[in-house]
Amino acid sequence: MLNRRRSLSIWIALGAAALALMPAVAFAAERTGMSSEGIFVAELILLLVVGRGIGEVLEILGQPAVMGQLIGGILLGPSLLGWVWPEAERLVFAGDASQKSMINAIAQLGVLMLLLLTGMETDLRLVRRVGRACFSISAAGVAVPFALGFTAAQFMPASLLATGSERIVAGLFLGTALSISSVKIVAMVVRDMNFMRRDLGQIIVSSAIIEDTIGWVIIAITIGIATKGRIEIGNLAFTILGVAAFMAFSFTLGRRIVFDAIRWTNDTFRSEYAVVTVILAIMGAMALITDLIGVHTVLGAFVAGILVGESPILSRHIEGQLRGIITALFMPVFFGVAGLSADLTVLIDPQLALLTVALVVIASIGKFGGAFIGAEVAGMSRAEGIAVGCGMNARGSTEVIVASIGLSMGVLSHNLFTMILTMAVITTLVMPPTLRWALRRLPIGENEKKRLEREEVDQRGFVANLERLLVVVDEGVVGRFAAYLAGVIGAGKPMTVLHSSGEIDAEPTEGLHLDEIEKGAEDSREAAKKSDESPVREAPVTRRQHEELSAETVAREARKGYGMLLVGLGRAVTSKGGFSHRLNEVAGAFDGPLCLVLKPAAVGRQTPKLGPGSGKILVPVNGTAVARRGAELALAIAAVTGAPVKMLYVARVGRDEPRDTVSHRRREAVLKDIVALADRYGVEIETAIRSRAAAADAIARQASRSVALIVMGVARRQGEELIFGETTTGVLRRSPCPVVLISDERVKRDESDREAVRTGTGTG
């Protein structure tokens, strides 16, 4: 609490200091004759610093930071600064047309960038997973407030309408502004309450996503009508058909074009941020298409964001790059400029103040009532309906964009624009505490609790969070088996296969490895269906043929970004348990985690078989993070193949060690974690502890008892060649079955693994 108060005090002081910059900027501009470019830079600095400072204060208080950026603009505009010191406000923010156009250009680009980011955060898979409840909530949640807003516009004073604007067009804008929830703010509060993975939290966010999507289509059609100034049946039909055709193209052929463009750029270009450039170009192209069909560019940017966000090749790193520049620059400028356009001093007029209160009441009752009705139709409880109604009542960023577009097109007057902004701020600030109150009253069911536990395990997992897989295989037995495992592990993830000729351990079978990958992926899809998991979607598999695979080839491919390198090459293990020169070269060119599929010298030439009737998968564990990674990999394979699994805890322990020692409790904790991991994958496991023999001896003895595969998590040592330690060497020298080794990164390693390597107690 003390730290929170201190942080709050610091940010209040910084916000005050930022506002205090205003007189200095105004004085400098007046005395030195600052150029329009200089004033433009000063505007940017003030909007960024003041918006960020107030946003930080609001976030500490549990409110959305984006509202701080809007409030910062309001304070710097005629509502406060223009009221207290009008000369300074006019000098910095109300200069000539050319200077205003500079900051407005950044704001307009900010609208597109914000819609791109909103689309990228729109998780359509979440909507599909939650089910139909969110559709009734979003339908009623849009229809009721839209009807109230449209009706209110027909009875409002004529002075609130822009000159030459029709009531019907103004009603469409007002109805839209009242009916859409802000996905960003709703998701922020739900996430802050740790409800994002709860069933109700997902329903609330999914409903907001659908509302946002419907809203932008309505906005596009409304803007098409507003452009003509009146409703014409022919133009309206053209606009609706154009939007429908655009949406149909985008989510069919357009989806594939976007996916392929991002993948091709990522795999072809070597310059920095090439994928970000292409994403921005895609956004611009789709925005231009919507502009050509007579609707606003925001629809194109939003749909582009959805397609980019669904791209299987989009990594968290690339998404973070885009999010950083949008959040740091474009959002504060856009919301700040929107705030500058509002003039809260007009609310001194009692009539306008009462109308604003009425607008807030209409918006709140309409939104809460519509969402509550939708929840009732979906069969939800009354407490859940109240929570849904509270959650959908945040307007925030979406309404600001709608109102800004209406103002710029001359559909909304400045007074009505100010009223809508006031409504957006009030409903947004009220939503977090009311939603928190409603969510705290909801219990958690048994099925939901199990799902949350499973997802919590996934968050810590390695296999579940793999984004892209690089596979190096040859045409032999090991290559075929490795390709099948790649299909099992990497199902639903983009994959690149470097197909090597060279030394093999069987007759060449060119092209068969791709069939094995598809077989593994198909087995994964079937397993997901049987276990009621989310369906595994198909992902692109790129194949590249190389007569002689070199380290340079692998290194060049690895630069494109992969979560793991899986290698399956024949004759890769020597009789002494070491690795061939070719495997050392290939693996040495990749700095990330390795998965090596190996056939020791003692293993025959037959292709390994995994299944319920085959031998067990043996997994040595010892409590290190990399050993847990090996256990997770084995369980992922077993979940698909149905092979039984045996977890073998190996550690050197004294004969008479008491049960209450630290090492004993550690073993119990490790095995308990492994059992939870097995429950997540739906795999029954057998556990055993071997503490008095050397690790390699214990593993080798267990491997001789109906074991079809050994999976080991191993610590990767520093050096030019692959070195995993004496235990791994001993196992490879004596194993009667194939061995899969999964390692950590070349450099990064958990402290527990470092200690294991230093003391010689690691699995490797």
From TrEMBL:
Residues 520-552 are annotated as: Disordered. InterPro entries: Cation/H_exchanger_TM, CPA2_transporter, Na+/solute_symporter_sf, Universal_stress_UspA, UspA. Residues 616-742 form the UspA domain. It is a multi-pass membrane protein. Keywords: Ion transport, Membrane, Signal, Transmembrane, Transmembrane helix, Transport. It is found in: Membrane. Pfam families: Na_H_Exchanger, Usp. Residues 53-440 form the Cation/H+ exchanger transmembrane domain. Residues 1-28 form the signal peptide. Its main location: membrane. The chain crosses the membrane at residues 38-54, 66-85, 105-122, 134-156, 168-191, 203-227, 233-254, 275-308, 320-340, 352-373. Belongs to the universal stress protein A family. This is Cation:proton antiporter. It comes from Mesorhizobium humile.
